[in-house]
Write a structure and sequence with these properties.
The chain is mostly helical. It has helices spanning 2-23, 69-78, 96-104; strands spanning 29-32, 39-42. It has a single domain, classed as Dockerin domain (Type 1 dockerin domain, Orthogonal Bundle), CATH 1.10.1330.10. The chain has 3 helices and 2 strands, in the order H-E-E-H-H.
Length: 111
């Protein structure tokens, strides 16, 4: 029963994340309130990576060159763990913040 609840939560997070990405104007990003842990929308600039052309995009968990539903599945399987590969913000736990990062990069490719 707990697995079904987790799947529903992950599906909800995915739908909300994709909706935020599609409905937000350019330059506006989804973020997480660090105190409450709730998603919100911000127009603050996101710091670009130091390497202008990284080998993989942040969120490409299976290294196939595109951030897609397969990466969401890998992140979902690692949810609640300290899996370094799926911990996109390096806070030592795979949580909703990692979903937001993956959602902001959803659809990006390295090809």
């Amino acid at each position: 029963m707990a697995v079904k609840g987790n799947i529903l939560i992950l599906l909800f997070v995915f739908v909300v994340s994709v909706a935020l990405i599609l409905l937000c104007p350019s330059g506006v990003k989804a973020a997480i309130d660090p105190i409450m842990g709730t998603p919100f929308v911000t127009s603050l600039p996101i710091t670009p990576p130091i390497d202008p052309e990284p080998l993989t995009s942040l969120g490409d968990l299976n290294y196939d060159g595109v951030i897609n539903i397969q990466d969401y599945i890998l992140l979902s399987n690692a949810f609640g763990t300290n899996d370094k590969k799926a911990d996109l913000n390096d806070d030592r736990v795979v949580n909703i913040q990692d979903y937001i990062i993956l959602s902001n990069n959803f659809g990006k490719t390295n090809k």
